[in-house]
Amino acid sequence: MTDQTTSKILIMGIGNYLMGDEGVGVHVARYFENQKLPDYVDVLDGGTGGFHLMEYFETYPTVILIDATLDNRPAGTIRLIKPRFSSDFPRAMSTHDIGLKDMVESLIILDKLPEIHLFAVSIAEIQAQSIELSSAIQNVVPEIVTNIETLIQELSEVSK
Predict the structure, then answer these.
(1) pTM tops 0.90
(2) Among 27, 53, 99, 133, which is disulfide-ready with 138 (CB 3.0 to 4.6 Å)?
């Protein structure tokens, strides 16, 4: 992690890398770890960290999350949500649903909730013991990346 005084945006991928499409957020974070990003952008593979991720939400004023959701939408559907309350998160967040929602509630109580931009990626199922993404999800990863790059550009223009 770089100096927090200059890092204003955190890209955080959430999910279990070992459970197929459930790990799409981690796959996207790992992609960004290997890219040249502006100095004010950091990247974190948040895995299934739950409350262990709280310090990052308290430190960064803006967090871009990428996570899978089981929401009965077609696999590969991407939605950008700006949640302000735990109830704003998709109802069926994957295997770490309770931890993430509980953490958001705690940050609200502490009045430390950052601006969150959640890229929710619809998946069809959670595959056990697979590090591979299905073709439906693999095919939308470039779109997710482009959407995040565009959002970073928009956020940097707003802060000028």
Answers:
(1) no
(2) 133
